[in-house]
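Q&A log
Question type: sequence-to-structure
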Amino acid sequence: MEHELREYDDAGTLARSAAAFVAVRARQAVATKGNFTFAVSGGRTPWTMFAELSSCHMPWAHTVIYQVDERVAPDGDPDRNLTSLMAAIANAQTPPLVMAMPVNADDLDTSAREYGAMLPARLDMVHLGLGPDGHTASLIPGDPVLDVTDRPIALTQPYQGRRRLTMTYPTLARADQILWLVTGEDKQGPLKLLLEGDTSIPAGRVEATRSLIMADQEAL
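Response status: OK
Response body:
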């Protein structure tokens, strides 16, 4: 997959530019088909972007947010991506519809199937991050989840102390637009591999219609 790369001086400038990009695409989607479907990952930069969206003309009332991945942890736990997501959109005048991953169910495999069945046929945009080890979403190096192709959502093995639900590669491929937000010096190695199309890292195996990488100078 070919990537468009945009470079920014710092993470703050990147977050503002990302917010503007998302807001424009959201308005276009709403004008075309009535809603904007947006799947988001965790990490520091997306929540800064969401804070910046509060000053953009974002059609929250027509936005549906899905989770790319989520840690198996209690509601409100700081490890949960949902905790940061809800805090980031708390000031939205009309809150978007958030489809949270059901990670507190007794049967997580069933939860994964049910969440997968809720996903739309296409996603307007999927935000992804990039880990120092080359992972994206919760597609972790060496995890069997990397080879799952028959389910839209799958359960990982423990990683950094938590199991996770994650979108699989076929689901990410249903995105009309991938938006990568990459910040920090520890991303230099994996970002280089991603740009080269190196499939030895999980991020390098992502396919989608369009891919935009926004990176700050520390990551380059």
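Response note: Residues 148 and 168 are 7 Å apart (CA to CA).
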